[in-house]
Amino acid sequence: MLGWVITCHDDTAQDMLHRLEKKFGSQAQCRAVGFWRGLSSNMLSRMMCDALHDTDSGEGVIFLTDIPGAAPYRAAALMSHKHSQCEVISGVTYPLLERMLLSRESMSSAAFRNQIVSLGGPDVTSLWHQQQKNPPFVLKHDLYEY
User: Fold this and answer.
1) Phi and psi dihedrals of 87, rounded to 5?
2) Which residues are designated catalytic?
3) Which terminus of the chain has fewer CB atoms gathered within 10 Å of its CB, N or C?
4) pTM, to two decimals
């Protein structure tokens, strides 16, 4: 099963997880991390790292964030580069999470990423999709073999 780390501003992440659990019961491998005004980037990263390790069973973890480019998204993006099968999604809403809930059990992280982005509409994207639009910078001397 894919782990979920829902990470949003203020109470939003905890509210989403609470609503899911109220309707569907306790959610294994699912954590909420709130980003509050005044919380340092370092503390946010530590909280998200704990959540990543708590939710990872080896099948992958999906970071579900509210605002593309905001602190939770950036912290998740940095962590995702160090862990295989880790995806970062932005623009998530409660109805979208509810719709994708059962897919946690049957999809790979890459398939999940593609599915949630296609279902989410224009406001939902992923780190992977953004990287396809803007490939990483490569120095010219790295292109040549010596």
Assistant:
1) -125, 150
2) 9
3) C
4) 0.88
